[in-house]
Amino acid sequence: MYKPNSRREHFDVDMFPIFNLLLIVLSFLMLSGRPATRYPILINLPVGSCFNTNDPEGNYATILIGQKKLMLKLEDADIRETALKQMGSKHNMTFTPADATKFGETDVIGTPLPQMKKYISGYYNASDYYAQQGLSLIELSEWIIESRKATWKQHNARTRIVLMADAETPYPEIKKVIDMLGQQKINKFSIIYSYLRQI
Fold it and tell me: Confidence class of residue 53 from pLDDT cuts 50, 70 and 90?
C-alpha cells in the first residue's frame, strides 16, 4: 500500500522552561499586587484630574470621613498598640498585653474608648467591625496626638496624615477635621481621590 512521505519535520519542543517562566510571572503578579482594602464605612471617592504614581513613604494615618462617621486607620501594629496604651493611661483605663496585641491586629479605629474592650474581644466578628459607631472629633484628635507620639517614639519619624472622604460628605464636616488638624499645627496632609483620565 502506498504511504505518502510527509515533508514536514517534527521537532521536539520542551515545554518545561515555558511553564517555569509562566509560574515566575504569575508569582510576581500575585506578590506585587495589592489586596482590595475594605473599610467599615462605604466611601465613594471624589474624582480628581491629577495623578501621582508615588506612594507616600513613612508612617501615615488615614482619617476616614463618610456616612456621618469619623474613623482612623493606623498602618503599623506597634503604633496601634502603643497608642492604645497611651489612650488608656490618659483616660484611666487598663488594657492587658493580650488586649493590646489583639488591638494591634485591627486596622480601623472607629469605636469610642469606653466600648473598646468589648470591641477588641469581638474583633473577628464581621458584624461588630461594620457596626462601629465612629469617633467624636475630640476623640479622633486624641488618637492622632497619641499615634504621632507613638510614631516618634517607635520609629523616630513623623506621622503623615491622609484624608479619605466620601464624595457626598458636606464640606463643613471635612472643614471641622481640617480645623482640628490645624489646631495640632498639622498644615500638610494628603487627600485621596479617584483619578479621571482626561480625553
Answer: low
**Number of Cβ within a 10 Å radius of residue 150:** 24
Distance (Å, whole) CA 70 – CA 133: 9
| Per-residue confidence (pLDDT) for residue 22, from 0 to 100 | 86
pLDDT confidence of residue 46: 84
For residue 116, what are the CA distances in angstroms to 22, 92, 103, 146? 47, 13, 9, 16
Q: For residues 86 and 135, what is the distance between their CA atoms, to the nearest angstrom?
A: 17
d(CA 62, CA 12): 57
Q: What pTM value is reported for the model?
A: 0.77
- Whose cell is 479605629? That residue is 109
Please say whether the beta carbons of 162 and 188 come within 8 A: no
Strand locations in 44-192 (E) = 47-48, 60-66, 69-74, 108-109, 160-165, 190-191
